[in-house]
Amino acid sequence: MAVFQRKNIFSILVIMMVLGLMFTGVACTQQDEAANDKNETINFAASTWDSSKVNTEIVSFIITNGIGYKTQITSAASNIELVGIGKGDLDVRIENWTKTYGEEYYEPVEEGKVLEINEIMKKNRQGIYVPTFMIEGDAERGIEPMAPDLKSIFDLPDYWELFKDPENPEKGRIVGAPTTWSTGETLVPKIKAYGLDEYFTYFTPGSGPTLATAIASAVEKGEPVVAYYWEPTWLLGKYDMTRLEEPEFDESKYTEEAGYACQYPADRITVTINKSMTEKAPEVVDLLKNFEMTAAKMNEILAYMQDNDAEAKDAAIWYLKNNKDVWTKWVGDDVAEKVNSEL
Q1: Per-domain residue ranges for the chain?
Q2: Among residues 34, 37, 14, 228, which one has the least CA distance to residue 125?
Q3: Are strands 92-97 and 41-45 parallel, antiparallel or unpaired?
Q4: Which is deepest, 132, 142, 151, 239, by most CB within 10 Å?
Q5: Multiple choice CATH, 39-122+268-342, 3.10.310.10, 2.60.120.10, 3.40.190.10, 2.30.39.10
Q6: What distance in Å separates the CA atoms of residue 25 and residue 332, rounded to the nearest whole number?
Q7: Do domains 39-122+268-342 and 125-243 have the same CATH topology?
Q8: Please, are residues 241 and 230 in contact by the beta-carbon 8 Å criterion?
């Protein structure tokens, strides 16, 4: 009887060992499959402008070093990228300026092929700016306020002589947008609708860099300038500029017939993914949903790039090193620890 019991016990132990090995094998297989999933590459569209490139590099660094997926970044024209993410050739596009797009953006979203999962840089804006020292002065530079009551676009006629047009001294000069920019189609009628054409000429710079140089040069010299600009941009990150007040945005006023006589509408900037990402990389989707970037912070990042002749990847690492209180909230502690170890 004792021998029989020992045999039964031995048999039971053998069975338990076999079952244990089987479960261990299953667990190892599942872990291996999970590891293999991380070998998939997340394909990003990074567009051609710096803010998009930086945002993409920030997220890519976290994914590669914290979550463990490989990433690939492709920069192309917007229409090519929008088609690519709809087809699934690209997985993620972080900076979609939706008001500038047509069917190539909205059709795949409406069909459910592309998912809008986040909205960033909500306080982006554009308008007519002057250096803040013109209004408040700058004690460090010995600059007295030149136009202390200049707050609104409608105050400009009182100060037109500060902005004299060198080619037409009887009027001031407003520096507008390059001819290749569609913004000019709204700026010219806007200035007329506000009655500024009676006091100012509208100057068209040859390019974006020419416009930036005109503003930066005047600010560096402590001279008056009134010009169109927008944010996020390096210029508004580097220099203290004041956007002149306009009537609040009103769709009925923002028409060609009404002369676009109100503020420019803020654009809706989305983060989009191909729908397959929800299954392909759910951890990445969670990160993208939590990702946060303000227009003011991007101004600061772009100014860093300008001052240091830095590439987007360098700027992304600079951001991650100096804003740990922000980005660590997007991810779990384990991911944050891995990213920090690589910075």
Answers
A1: 39-122+268-342, 125-243
A2: 228
A3: parallel
A4: 239
A5: 3.40.190.10
A6: 29
A7: yes
A8: no
CATH number of 125-243: 3.40.190.100
Q: How many residues does the chain have?
A: 343
Region class of 155: left (phi > 0), else alpha (psi between -120 and 50), else beta: alpha
- Phi/psi of residue 177, each to 5°? -100, 150
pLDDT tens series, the chain, 343 aa:
333 343 344 444 434 433 343 333 333 333 333 333 467 899 999 888 899 999 999 999 999 999 999 999 998 888 899 999 999 999 999 999 998 888 999 999 999 999 999 999 998 999 999 999 999 999 999 999 999 999 999 999 999 999 999 999 999 999 999 988 888 889 999 999 999 999 999 999 999 999 999 999 999 999 999 999 999 999 999 999 999 999 999 999 999 999 999 999 999 999 999 999 999 999 999 999 999 999 999 999 999 999 999 999 999 999 999 999 999 999 999 999 999 999 9
